[in-house]
Amino acid sequence: MKILLVEDDAEISEMLKSFLMTENFEVVCAADGESALEKFFMDEYSIVLLDLMIPKKNGMEVMKAIRENSTVPIMIVSAKDTDSDKALGLGLGADDYVTKPFSVTEVLARIKANIRRNTQYVSNMPKEEIEIARGELVINTNDYSVFKNGTKIELTAKEFEILKLLMKNPQKIYTKEQMYSQVWKDAYLGDENAVNVHISRLRTKIEDNPRNPKYVVTVWGIGYKLGDVE
């Protein structure tokens, strides 16, 4: 499996690369945003490790460009550790967020978890559930495409998984804990921010009026469900 490591601190980059290579990963390094995008679009990667504070193009710009073309897992590894930074990173399409200083063993565990989520569950998906239509929306679980009235909508991997979960189970109400467990395939530790940010971003993309949603509906005091659409 190949990793794109985007980090301008040469010492951190070399340390992570050496450690990950001992775990049988192939690691391609980039020290700035421009070279990161150039390398990304020249090859295929299992995951991208991305620092936010990099020269030429910052991490948010790099992530936005990747998300316009790919659902590859993106894990932010940054010294910026405020809630607003994390919310912005997750909102733009990051799948995970690790703050510096970090433990290399924790980074490794999260890398493996994100790669596993992105491959294992998609490959095991039942064939009869490839295309799901609800109201004006049609999603294809094979190529992660979403169309509304025939117009394609670009979603991040997590936004797609949330929408798929609701469209597959239109009568079910999901708590934030259940949604996190189903979409992130991980234990819910009480951090509602990740769910809230992704729900908000999803609504801005698929709803006619995000303030009065008809697809991703809030059930107050409980969680979320698919609205009553035919």
Protein architecture, described:
With 230 residues, the protein is an alpha/beta fold. 41% of the residues lie in helices and 21% in strands. It has 8 helices and 12 strands. The chain has a 5-stranded parallel beta sheet with strand order 2-1-3-4-5, sandwiched between helices. It has a 4-stranded antiparallel beta sheet with strand order 6-7-8-9, with helices on one face. Helix 1 links the parallel strand 1 (2-6) and strand 2 (26-30). Helix 2 runs parallel beside helix 3 and helix 6 (157-168) packs across helix 8. The protein is globular and about 55 Å long. The termini are far apart.
The unreliable regions are none
Write out the strand line-up for the largest beta sheet, numbering strands in chain order: 2-1-3-4-5
Number of helices: 8
Terminal-residue CA separation = 42 Å
Short description:
The chain is an alpha/beta fold and 230 residues long. It has helices at 10-22, 33-40, 59-67, 83-91, 104-123, 157-168, 176-184, 193-206, and strands at residues 2-6, 26-30, 47-50, 74-78, 96-99, 131-134, 137-140, 145-148, 151-153, 174-175, 216-219, 223-226.
Q: Could you give the topology of this structure?
A:
Elements lengths: L1 E5 L3 H13 L3 E5 L2 H8 L6 E4 L8 H9 L6 E5 L4 H9 L4 E4 L4 H20 L7 E4 L2 E4 L4 E4 L2 E3 L3 H12 L5 E2 H9 L8 H14 L9 E4 L3 E4 L4
Helix pairs in contact: 2-3, 4-8, 6-7, 6-8
